[in-house]
């Protein structure tokens, strides 16, 4: 095989296979092949790339972990501001939120919401340009955040390129980087063993891990990610409902938030809250509340946002 012959096609097929099985294993937790078979595929890919170094691309699955520390994190601006959420502290607040939503869109009947756990981690936006992961940025002050691209690339469930058709030229996905509760507990054991101060909560463990610039530090591997919203979307068809957006993100192999449900009307929202509150201690991730989001995208546009937060969503905190 020479570079003008079959190598580019063979490499592309091999990369696609590795990406496919990576997605089945890490995102869907439903592998089709054994770990040994996956390791062999990956080794074949490494082998071929060694033979044809000129064909190695930045998106190849072999290029997730950079070799060198990235140094101080650079600042990057957000194309669309990353907003925060207003907090609701009791049922009366939720009823008032729903009343304001219905007033804003001129509706007397039940509004369709999506209820999701509020995952306790660090907000990150992933930006894909022509289907390739271009950069990942923390929320920062909402206008500018830290460039955490090198680190986010190491999270196995983050696709370095989006498969399939209909991928918009520019796609900004809003996510939460988090750690599983048991991983934080284990990390804290190791930190105590070194005589250091353990992390007070998962969020501080994640925030501090995201600031690590050395790609070889093993506990960076503990970071996980959930996508919970489409931030900005160009040259593609905007899905009419939030649930369609979640399904679209899933089709592009992005790991979407789990445990969400459709809630028609405020009573269904409160039912979801009570149910999640009861299950909270059994969930593998830390959550500090429920986010209610208006499902219809046109209704969201009508409601708009103020400087700090959207009027179409709010966080109902656990007590
Ligand atoms: S939606 C316009 N959904 O909570 C804001 N946020 O206080 C859209 N968060 O910065 C945010 N889980 O990082 C949304 N299921 C979820 C979330 C979630 C955690 C974080 C998010 C945001 C913060 C707001």
Describe this structure in words.
The protein is α+β, with helices and mostly antiparallel strands and 319 residues long. It has two domains: 7-63, Helix Hairpins (Orthogonal Bundle); 81-317, 2-Layer Sandwich (D-amino Acid Aminotransferase, Chain A, domain 1), CATH 3.30.470. 34% of the residues lie in helices and 21% in strands. The chain is built from nine helices and eleven strands. The chain has helices at residues 7-27, 35-51, 91-104, 149-152, 181-193, 202-210, 242-251, 266-279, 297-303, and strands spanning 75-77, 87-88, 112-119, 122-129, 132-138, 144-146, 170-178, 224-234, 261-264, 287-294, 313-317. The strands form three sheets. Strands 2-11-10-3-9 form a five-stranded mixed β-sheet. A four-stranded antiparallel β-sheet has the order 5-4-7-8. Strands 1-6 form a two-stranded antiparallel sheet. α1 packs antiparallel against α2. The longest helix is centred in the first third of the chain and has 21 residues, at 7-27. The protein is globular, with a radius of gyration of 21 Å. The chain starts with 6 loop residues before the first helix and ends with a strand. The mean pLDDT is 91. 2-(butylsulfanyl)adenosine is lined by residues 83-85, 116, 118-119, 123, 139, 174, 176, 228-229, 257, 291, 310, 313, 315.
Strand order, sheet with most strands: 2-11-10-3-9
Total number of beta strands? 11
CATH topology of the largest domain: D-amino Acid Aminotransferase, Chain A, domain 1
State the helicity in percent bands.
25-40%
Low-pLDDT runs of 5+ residues are none
Described by the principal axes of the CA atoms, the overall outline is globular
Distance between the termini: 64 Å
What does the average pLDDT come to?
91
Structural class based on helices, strands and sheet pairing? alpha+beta
Say which molecules are bound, naming each kind only once: 2-(butylsulfanyl)adenosine
CATH superfamily of the largest domain: DNA ligase/mRNA capping enzyme
How many individual domains?
2
CATH class of the largest domain: Alpha Beta
CATH architecture of the largest domain: 2-Layer Sandwich
Instruction: Tell me the strand percentage band.
Output: 15-25%
Q: How is the main sheet built?
A: 5 strands, mixed
What is the ordering of alpha helices and beta strands?
HHEEHEEEEHEHHEHEHEHE
Report the total helices.
9
- Based on the structure, what is the oligomeric state of the protein chains? single chain
Roughly how many Å is the radius of gyration?
A: 21 Å
């Amino acid at each position: 095989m020479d570079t003008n012959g079959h190598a580019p096609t063979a490499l592309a097929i091999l990369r696609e296979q590795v990406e496919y099985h990576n997605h089945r294993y890490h995102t869907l937790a439903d592998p089709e092949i054994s770990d040994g078979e996956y390791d062999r595929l990956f080794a074949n890919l490494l082998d071929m790339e060694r033979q044809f170094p000129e064909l190695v691309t930045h998106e190849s699955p072999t290029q997730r972990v950079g070799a060198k520390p990235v140094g101080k994190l650079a600042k990057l601006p957000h194309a669309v501001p990353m907003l925060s959420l207003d907090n609701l502290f009791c049922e009366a607040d939720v009823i008032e939120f729903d009343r304001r939503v219905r007033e804003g869109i001129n509706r007397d009947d039940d509004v369709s919401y999506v209820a999701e756990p509020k995952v306790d981690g660090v907000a990150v936006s992933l930006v894909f340009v022509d289907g390739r992961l271009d950069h990942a940025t923390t929320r920062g002050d909402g206008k500018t955040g830290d460039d955490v691209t090198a680190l986010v690339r190491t999270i196995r469930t983050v696709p370095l390129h989006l498969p399939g058709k209909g991928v918009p030229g520019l796609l900004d996905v809003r996510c939460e980087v988090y750690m599983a509760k048991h991983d934080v507990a284990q990390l804290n054991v190791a930190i105590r063993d070194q005589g250091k101060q353990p992390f007070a909560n998962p969020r501080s463990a994640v925030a501090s891990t995201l600031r690590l610039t050395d790609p070889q530090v093993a506990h960076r591997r503990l970071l996980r990610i959930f996508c919970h919203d489409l931030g900005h979307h160009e040259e593609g068809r905007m899905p009419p409902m939030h649930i369609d957006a979640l399904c679209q993100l899933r089709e592009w192999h992005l790991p979407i938030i789990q445990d969400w449900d459709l809630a028609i009307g405020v009573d269904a929202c409160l039912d979801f809250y009570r149910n999640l509150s009861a299950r909270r201690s059994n969930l593998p991730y830390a959550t500090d509340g429920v986010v209610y989001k208006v499902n219809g995208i046109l209704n969201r546009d009508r409601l708009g946002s103020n400087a700090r937060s959207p009027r179409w969503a709010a966080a109902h905190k656990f007590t």
